[in-house]
Backbone:
C-alpha cells in the first residue's frame, strides 16, 4: 500500500509528510518502514521532539 504511494510520485521534502507516513506505517505494523520514515523526518526538522521520541520507541520495540 505505502510502497505504491512512494513509487508513483517523488516524495515531498517535508518533515510533516515523512512524520505522517511514519505514523501510518507504524499503525499498519510496518515498524521497519516507520523507522525509515522517521529517520527521513529528523534531518528536515531536527527540533521535532515527537518524531524523535517515536523513533526511539520504535527502535526499542524492534530490538
Residues:
Amino acid at each position: 500500500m505505502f510502497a505504491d504511494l512512494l513509487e508513483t510520485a517523488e516524495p515531498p521534502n517535508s518533515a510533516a509528510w515523512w512524520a505522517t507516513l511514519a505514523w501510518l506505517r507504524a499503525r499498519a505494523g510496518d515498524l521497519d518502514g516507520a523507522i525509515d520514515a522517521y529517520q527521513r523526518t529528523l534531518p528536515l526538522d531536527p527540533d521535532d521532539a515527537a518524531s524523535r521520541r517515536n523513533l526511539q520507541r520504535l527502535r526499542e520495540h524492534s530490538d
